[in-house]
Specification:
Largest sheet: none
Low-confidence stretches: none
Helix content: over 70%
Oligomer: single chain
Order of helices and strands: HHHH
Mean pLDDT: 93
Number of helices: 4
Radius of gyration: 26 Å
Length: about 120
Amino acid sequence: MTIVTYNLKLIGQAIKDVVFFPIWWYSFGLAQILKKNKKFLANREKGLALFVWIVNIFTPMYGQYDIQGRIISFFMRLAQIIFRGLIMIFWLIITFLCVIIWLGLPFLIIYQIFYQIT
């Protein structure tokens, strides 16, 4: 009798998991992915130090407070900001595509299942 009860519990749990899966995928799962992507982008920004370069754009490099030092420092920092900004945009696009793939993956899997059946 306990084997039958245990099997019914397993079947009930499996049905519950299948029914709850889409709800989890588009709510809690999506929230986790967004949170991880936010943390990933924050770490990429720290690694690139983009905001540090932006904040210090008018600060002369190497203590060169004359006009030539200020001009060279400004354009050097501007080039660094542009380059690092492009890299940050690349990572932003990658994380955005990961979220889009996350949202579309169940539909792709269902489509592939029906395609293989027919």
